[in-house]
């Protein structure tokens, strides 16, 4: 993978978490390394407009599904899971790649909870916090 991504982690990497370490709206990577210091990788490539960050409340249950539907009909789905590897937990922050269409390409966000309840929201109905949007659940 290093030859394609440029990411090299010394030692035995045991977990990977995505986060926004510097709150710039871009996904950063944080590797857990066995018997060594953690290895953070900050996204420095810019282009925050090509990503949509959605933050769920802390109490959100694993199995919750977030779907971003684009105006062209394309969809992306992420399911919240427990854990991110050995001794790690990702925050309730999820990134969707939007390409050159940016935020204007998003038609709606839908959330389906494990109990079957679901909500749909236009991006304009979500609370922005910088480049990340908070998704409030019932």
Strand and helix map with partners:
Elements: H1 2-5, E1 13-19, E2 28-33, E3 39-41, E4 51-55, E5 65-70, E6 75-79, E7 93-97, E8 106-112, E9 118-121, E10 127-129, E11 132-134
Parallel strand pairs: 4-11
Antiparallel strand pairs: 1-2, 2-3, 4-7, 5-6, 5-8, 8-9, 10-11
Q: Can you walk through the features of this model?
A:
This protein has 138 residues and is mostly beta strands. It has one domain. It is 3% helix and 39% strand. The chain has one helix and eleven strands; from the N terminus they run H-E-E-E-E-E-E-E-E-E-E-E. The protein has one helix at residues 2-5, and strands spanning 13-19, 28-33, 39-41, 51-55, 65-70, 75-79, 93-97, 106-112, 118-121, 127-129, 132-134. The strands form three sheets. It has a four-stranded mixed β-sheet with strand order 7-4-11-10, with no helix packed on it. The protein has a four-stranded antiparallel β-sheet with strand order 6-5-8-9, with no helix packed on it. The longest helix is centred in the first third of the chain and has 4 residues, at 2-5. It is globular and about 45 Å long. The chain starts with a helix and ends with a strand. The model has no long low-confidence stretch (mean pLDDT 87).
Defining traits:
single chain; 138 residues; mainly beta; four-stranded mixed sheet; four-stranded antiparallel sheet; 1 helix; 3% helix
Give helix and strand order, one letter per element, not per position.
Answer: HEEEEEEEEEEE
Measured as a percent range, the helix fraction is under 10%
Give the overall silhouette: globular
The span between the termini is 41 Å
What is the count of helical runs?
A: 1
Share of residues in strands: 35-45%
Number of strands: 11
Secondary structure class reads mainly beta
Strand order of the largest sheet: 7-4-11-10
**Residue runs with pLDDT of under 50 for 5 or more positions:** none
User: How would you sum up the major sheet?
Assistant: 4 strands, mixed
Any idea how many domains? Answer: 1
The chain-level mean pLDDT equals: 87
Radius of gyration equals 16 Å
């Amino acid at each position: 993978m290093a030859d394609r991504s440029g990411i090299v982690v010394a030692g035995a990497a045991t977990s990977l978490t995505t986060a926004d370490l510097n709150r710039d709206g871009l996904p950063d990577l944080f590797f857990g390394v066995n018997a060594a210091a953690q290895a953070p990788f900050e996204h420095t490539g810019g282009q925050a407009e090509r990503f949509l960050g959605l933050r769920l409340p802390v109490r959100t249950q694993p199995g919750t599904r977030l779907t971003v539907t684009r105006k062209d009909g394309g969809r992306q789905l992420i399911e919240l899971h427990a854990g991110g590897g050995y001794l790690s937990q990702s925050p309730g922050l999820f990134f969707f790649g939007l390409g050159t269409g940016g935020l204007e390409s998003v038609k709606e966000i839908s959330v389906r909870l494990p109990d079957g309840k679901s909500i749909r929201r236009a991006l304009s109905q979500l609370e922005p916090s910088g480049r990340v949007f908070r998704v409030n659940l019932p």
